[in-house]
Every structure is written in C-alpha cells, then in structure tokens.
Amino acid sequence: MQMRFDGRLGFPGGFVTLQNESLEDGLNRELREELGDAAAAFRVERADHRSSRTVSGRRIVTHFYVRRLTLEQLAAVEIGAPHAKDHGLEVLGLVRVPLYTLQDGVGGLPAFLENTFIGTAREQLLEALRSKLSTRGALQGPMGPELRIFVFGREGEQRECFLCWAWHL
Ligand SMILES: O=c1[nH]cnc2c1ncn2[C@@H]1O[C@H](COP(=O)(O)OP(=O)(O)O)[C@@H](O)[C@H]1O
Q1: pTM as predicted
Q2: pLDDT in tens, 99-150
Q3: Taking every annotated instance into account, which residue ranges of this chain make up the domain Nudix hydrolase (predicted)?
Q4: Is 46 exposed, middle or buried (0-12, 13-18, 19+ CB in 10 A)?
C-alpha cells in the first residue's frame, strides 16, 4: 500500500475524467504518476477489476483493481517509486503489508490492520487477501511472502476514483 499525504494508508489511485479517457486508461496514467516509470512495464486491464463502491456523502465511485506482477516488476517499482511525479506530495512512500502473524499473536498483519486507512482501503485489503491469499497458506512465517500495494487518480466532472493493488507470491 502507500502512505498518503494525509497520514492514512491507502491504495495508489485517483480521479479520472471519463469524457477523455477510459477507467483503465486513467488508472494506468495515475499509476505512472504515483509509482513512476516502472509502472509502464505492465498495464491494469478491465479483467483485473474486482469491486466497485460508492463513497457515502460524496459523489464518488471507487473501483478496485487487482493486478499480479512478477517479482522483477515489483522490485523495479519499489526502486523507482521515490522518483515518481507525486512522490513527496500525494504519496509519501510505498508500504509492504506483512502477511504473517508473529508468535505473540499481534505482530505482523494484526498490528498492521490497527493503522488508520482511507475510506474502505482496509476492507479492500481484507477482501483481496481472502480471495487471493488465504487459500494458498500465505499468512504464515515472517520470512514468507509479502504483499505490496499501489494506487492512482485525477479530478473530473464525474468523479471516478481508481484504486489498484498489485501482489506477488
Ligand atoms: O485506497 C482507497 N481505498 C478506498 N477508498 C479510497 C482510497 N483512496 C481514496 N478513497 C476514497 O476516495 C475519496 C477521495 O480520495 P482522496 O482523499 O485521495 O481525494 P480528495 O483529496 O479529493 O478527497 C476518499 O475520501 C475516500 O473515500
């Protein structure tokens, strides 16, 4: 995931103008802005869409996408992210999600989930973990697989917000 400008954790993403671009075009543009040039090595497609929700009290619809990357792609994104256009502004840094629980029963994923998240990002994280990871036994040992998540966006007449995360096992 990423640390946002407001001190909350969330997914890479943002707003798009549907008059000028498709959801996926907007999403991939925002990925470049927030993650840097390494995001150009892959493209999030319509088939990667997982869920959509309205934001209460605001005229916003969020669309959640999940995209699997190779380890090489993820490593390139992590190295390049500090050079992205939005780094230090909207985005303060990428954060890996620990997919394990330490022996004290709290450290790892349980402690991570105690952070403050923007909107429904926490629920989206759990939704993604349930569908993609729990059946693979990935929520184990501290040396096990880790999840890294990204996001994107821009403003428009119709405020559509694109959220995405990428993972590797
Ligand atoms: O990662 C996310 N997961 C779920 N909802 C999100 C996420 N990021 C942003 N949102 C939703 O989109 C809204 C607008 O996002 P953001 O705070 O970046 O733009 P804003 O500065 O125009 O309010 C947030 O208030 C929140 O409800």
Answers
A1: 0.81
A2: 778 888 888 889 999 999 999 999 988 888 876 654 444 444 344 444 444 4
A3: 1-127
A4: exposed
Instruction: Give the distance (Å) from ligand 1 centre to CA of residue 66.
Output: 17
Tokens of 25: 């075009």
In this prediction, does ipTM exceed 0.85? yes
Mutate to test the pocket of ligand 1, among 2, 52, 55 (most ligand atoms within 8 A of CB): 55
Residue 98 predicted with pLDDT over 80? yes
Q: Which of 30, 56, 161 to mutate to test the pocket of ligand 1 (most atoms within 8 A of CB)?
A: 161
State how far Cα 10 lies from the chain centre.
7
Question: Do the beta carbons of residue 35 and residue 150 sit within 8 Å?
Answer: yes
CA of 155, closest atom in ligand 1: 22
